[in-house]
Amino acid sequence: MTSSSRPLLNRRLAEFGTTIFAEMSALAVRTGAINLGQGFPDTDGPEEVREAAVRALRDGRGNQYPPGPGVPELRTAIAAHQQRLYGLAHDPDTEVLVTAGATEAIAAALLALLEPGDEVIAFEPYYDSYAACIAMAGGTRVPVTLRPQDGAFRLDLGELRAAVTDRTRLLLINTPHNPTGTVLTREELTAIAELAVERDLLVVTDEVYEHLVFDDAEHVPLATFPGMRERTVTIGSAGKTFSFTGWKVGWVTAAPELVTAVRSAKQFLTYVASGPFQYAVAEALALPDSYFAAFRADMLAKRDLLAAGLADAGFEVFRPAGTYFITTDIRPLGESDGFAFCRALPERAGVVAIPNAVFYDHREAGAPFVRFAFCKRTGVLEEAVSRLKSLA
Ligand SMILES: *Cc1c(COP(=O)(O)O)cnc(C)c1O
Where does the sequence pass through the membrane (predicted)? Predict the structure, then answer.
């Protein structure tokens, strides 16, 4: 213990205790419930990608510190992927940075780009690391709440516009959006881009679910809009796209000055990570379009299976246009407190879910919403659906 009565955890982090995922995963283990809480797949990604990692390891590629910006093979593959999908040209040497997952990319970007007191606008509900990283960087978060409207959570562009002040430094965007499954439309992205240009804001955009868009939704990177290429830090990750979340290979693509800034923070966080896996992800990014199409089709079928099951069980379902999460409203079940509902659900129905309120500053705005992950084997989802029927 320290000699003073001062709390050990500093004031910046005091509000961030253990994450809800730790609590809910422990509850899943204790009760034997099916864990649809945390968003990781329960099967590994493509065999040839796994084999590529084994080969790299055996051949002694990446077993020692890889280059700070990432191995050249991977940086080249990331640039080629952005070009092939979106027509975005990036110099692999100056405009691409490999990170320890998207998580480190987010942290490094915020630590590099914010001065204490700078305001950061982000959509609420937020991905859980955003608030903590803004706090660690000394920034002030300014939430813009996505609200339910016609079966989806939508951004109010007027509210976004009104949130910008003279202290706003950065917009932290996430599309496709976790946890709501919202995919921003071209019109919304155009308005965001115009606002960023007009108010001279930096943009950090988390696009880790870029390959998981369904129906007629379309993922369009913000960096493709006029005036955005030079002010946008785009973040991607292999974890979600290739179902290797444990490998922690993520990346940043941006203009050289932005990459240099982010790298300045990144070099003192992990310095480097995931050596052999970087070579494997380079091969994964070059997989033919058929891989990405099959991955999307598989996840779409899982979405439809779980969405139908949740609707049958009595939830209001917000059918996601992207990601591998479904947000539901529990009020049709006669419930209103997502925390209490999720704490009781494992005993009641043998399933674990996450209360969306943890992703809000305005907890009351998120109170009745609960998130389920569908990146699980079909048999597991079928069993979960059958268990949830008992709620109806
Ligand atoms: C999973 C996730 C991340 C973290 O990605 P890693 O590459 O595993 O660090 C970042 N942002 C969002 C929105 C996510 O869902």
Answer: none
CA 132 to chain centre: 14
With beta carbons less than 8 A apart as the criterion, state whether 291 and 269 touch. no
Residue identified by tokens 């369904």 is 214
CB 43 within 8 A of CB 159: no
Residue 80 in tokens = 């080629």
What distance in angstroms lies between residue 333's CA and the mean position of ligand 1's atoms? 31
pTM score over 0.90: yes
Q: How far is the CA of 249 from the centre of ligand 1 (A)?
A: 10
Q: Residue 326: which of 339, 309, 343, 342 has the closest Cα?
A: 309
Residue 314's alpha-carbon distances to 17, 219, 311, 330, 332, in angstroms, are 32, 31, 5, 8, 6
CB-count burial class (<10 Å; 0-12, 13-18, 19+) for 140: middle
The conformational region for residue 99 under phi > 0 = left, psi -120 to 50 = alpha, else beta, is beta
Position 22 confidence tier, pLDDT thresholds 50, 70, 90: confident
